[in-house]
Design brief:
The complex is a heterodimer. By secondary structure, chain A is of the alpha/beta class. Chain A has helices at residues 12-22, 35-45, 62-71, 89-98, 110-125; strands spanning 3-8, 27-32, 49-52, 79-84, 102-105. Chain A has five helices and five strands. Chain A has a five-stranded parallel β-sheet, sandwiched between helices. In chain A, α3 runs parallel beside α4 (89-98). Classes of the chains: A alpha/beta, B alpha+beta. Chain A binds chain B through residues 10-14, 16-17, 20-21, 33, 55, 57, 85-88, 105-111, and chain B through 272, 275-277, 279-280, 282-288, 290-291, 294, 305, 308, 312, 444-447.
Chain lengths: 128, 526
């Protein structure tokens, strides 16, 4: 069964990069361009993994969207990976505070992204 | 005969006295000096023989407009004792301050026969007083003018002084400070900081500082510094320095560092944003390159990916160039500008010609008057190109972008303006406020290409030319941007200090494409 991954980034090129990276048969990729759309899509699609950019236009940024997802009991199985150009320690700490399961700094290696996503999917699959 | 040995002693006392002694005979209203001691001679410079037999008024010369002198004359007329301070003059004309005590002497019959005058030269004391006053006034002026707050407490811990700046910095009033002690002061201040912010009481400092007699002995005038923020609406960030002096007075010094902190914040925000803006295109470049290396794609897809890489690489490169330009202008100001007199009409013509091939919607209206200005041609060309390409980016292809010129007369000088007008999407009031802010982009999603630095750079360049950038815009209708520059008078020479040499700095050689040509312009704007 295909794993569902939602990529959230306001830059179309980045969304396409992630789509092409994960386009190896076992993943179904969904896209969102803002924090608000991300939350809607997560509720609608229930992906296993969300790849979340931090800086996006609109009233909710990536950290806000991550917190909202982690706070929702219906979305308990959803892992969130921050995928962002903001790489200071303060930013990484903010990611943890928002409940992120992993943090990748741009520019990232697509192969490394694949590893992170498959790792999270396997961990989610194990009985708790 | 018994009186003689005692008189001898008294007369020795008078002769040896350090103060001048003058005995004046007062017979039938006439005053006449009959004796002066050697101290009198020393103080006044007059020898005994020069004053004996004369009127005592000799000492104040013509300086008769002294209040003290009138008091003296009245006392003499009333036959009363008095002490006055007079301006007197030595034989050589030098002024000295005389603290003069005059005592009447009556004979056995009660008739006035003599006056005794005791002269004390208090010039040195007077000078010291004046010097002190002068220092006090200077200090007062300094502390009053000072933009930093100054507060002092005496050894008992009560407020002894607060300057104007203290009141305006903190919002605490003079009335509130009256008669206050350190504990009361700390309470007032903690209130100004509000609940959100920590305030370290002065009392705390004094207690911890006095922790060991040894510590205080080693450092008899300790100081301590701390920083805190006042609650809104004041909101200032203040650095407080506390110092104890050798007399046990406590001095508090407050300086306003709000702007410095804000500037530091802005600098690190700028760096963080610049890093972010550079990393974003790199993510595409590195990511797609890695995919191309590890996966097989058909030719069509490969070409698409390579085009994305190229586009993002160009974006990166443009960003780096603009960052370097900004850094260079900030560091060096306009000293690297090649300023000469140019007719701005030729720059307009150049820019129009360069861009109209790819973008036929660009037109310029001919201007019939000469428009000379002292400018760096390449820089103004860059600014105008940037503004025109913005206008094109934010308009539909069929809407015209029109470049026009004008001259306006201001109070002190004339200015020439180049206006770029479009009928594009325009800007909301919120967007207009942020126009020209570094990295600010009306459309940050990347669908309209741009770095967010172009307008900031234009503003820097224009400012360094002594000009202004004017914006008029209506959301949904379009925008008009005008570059205003001082009009050069025909015989104007470059101002002293502006270099005409192209400086050979390495930043210039790092730039990849200083001047846009038609083909490059086409490639820059997909």
């Amino acid at each position: 069964m295909k794993q569902r991954v939602l990529v959230v980034d306001d830059q179309a090129d980045i969304r396409r990069l992630v789509r092409m990276t994960l386009d190896i048969g076992e993943y179904e990729v969904y896209e969102a361009a803002t924090g608000e759309m991300a939350i809607e899509s997560v509720i609608a699609v229930k992906p296993q993994v969300v790849l979340m950019d931090i800086m996006m236009p609109g009233s909710i940024d990536g950290l806000g969207a991550c917190s909202a997802i982690k706070a929702d009991p219906r979305l308990a199985g959803v892992s969130v990976v921050m995928l962002t150009a903001r790489g200071q320690q303060a930013d990484i700490d903010a990611g943890s505070a928002a409940g992120a399961d992993a943090y990748l700094v741009k520019p990232f290696s697509p192969l490394q992204l694949l590893d992170v996503v498959s790792g999270l999917v396997k961990a989610a699959g194990r009985p708790r | 005969m018994n009186a003689d040995p005692w008189l001898n002693v008294l007369s020795r006392a008078v002769m040896a006295a350090n103060d001048g002694i003058m005995i004046v005979e007062a017979i039938r209203g006439a005053l006449c000096v009959v004796f002066v001691n050697s101290a009198f001679e020393r103080i006044t410079g007059y020898a005994s023989a020069e004053v004996v037999g004369k009127r005592p008024g000799i000492l104040h010369c013509n300086d008769v407009e002294q209040m003290a002198l009138r008091d003296l004359q009245r006392a003499i007329a009333e036959e009363k004792a008095i002490t006055v301070v007079l301006r007197n003059y030595r034989k050589d004309g030098e002024l000295f301050w005389n603290e003069l005590t005059v005592v009447p002497v009556h004979d056995d019959a009660g008739r006035l026969c003599h006056f005794v005058g005791i002269l004390k030269d208090i010039t040195a004391q007077k000078n010291a007083e004046r010097e002190l006053m002068s220092w006090v006034m200077r200090l007062d002026a300094l502390t009053t003018m000072s933009a930093d707050g100054l507060v002092t407490f005496d050894r008992a811990g009560y407020l002894s002084y607060a300057n104007n700046a203290f009141y305006s910095l903190t919002g605490i009033t003079a009335v509130e400070l009256r008669g206050i002690d350190l504990a009361g002061f700390d309470r007032l201040f903690a209130r100004q900081c509000g609940s959100g912010h920590a305030y370290l009481p002065v009392g705390e400092f004094l207690r911890t500082d006095g922790e060991g007699g040894a510590a205080e002995a080693m450092n008899p005038c300790p100081t301590s510094t701390c920083e805190f923020r006042l609650a809104p609406p004041n909101g200032r960030i203040l650095v407080r320095t506390i110092r104890r002096d050798a007399h046990g007075n406590t001095l508090l010094y407050l300086s306003d560092v709000t702007w410095q902190r804000r500037l530091d914040e802005m600098k690190s925000e700028f760096l963080a944003t610049a890093a972010h803006e550079l990393r974003t295109p790199m993510a595409s470049i590195l990511g797609y390159v890695e995919l191309l290396l590890v996966r097989d794609y058909d030719v069509k897809t490969r070409t698409e990916l390579l085009e994305i890489i190229l586009r993002q690489a160009r974006r990166s490169s443009g960003l780096v160039n603009e960052l370097l330009d900004l850094a260079r202008i900030e560091a060096g100001g306009s000293k690297d500008f090649k300023i000469k007199s140019h007719d701005l009409r030729s720059i307009v013509a150049e820019v129009t010609a360069a861009l109209t091939g790819a973008y036929p919607q660009i037109t310029s209206i001919p201007f019939d008057r000469p428009a000379p200005a002292m400018v760096d041609r390449e820089k103004i060309h860059q600014v105008l190109s940037n503004l025109v390409s913005n206008a094109v980016k934010f308009s539909a292809d069929e809407h015209p972008v029109v470049i026009s010129m004008a001259i306006r007369h201001l109070a002190m000088h004339d200015e020439v303006g180049i206006t770029v007008a479009d009928q594009g999407i325009g800007m909301t009031p919120e967007q207009q406020v942020r126009f020209g802010e570094r990295f600010y982009r009306c459309d940050p999603s990347g669908s309209v290409p741009g770095t967010g630095l172009g307008v900031a750079l234009c503003k820097e360049i224009i400012t360094h030319h002594g000009g202004t950038l004017e914006l008029q815009s209506e959301f949904g209708r379009g925008s008009r941007l005008t570059i205003w520059l001082p009009l050069a008078t025909p015989i104007q020479q470059p101002a002293a200090g502006l270099s005409e040499q192209r400086s050979a700095d390495c930043l210039a050689s790092c730039k990849t494409s200083p001047v846009q040509t038609e083909t490059q312009a086409k490639a820059h704007m997909p």
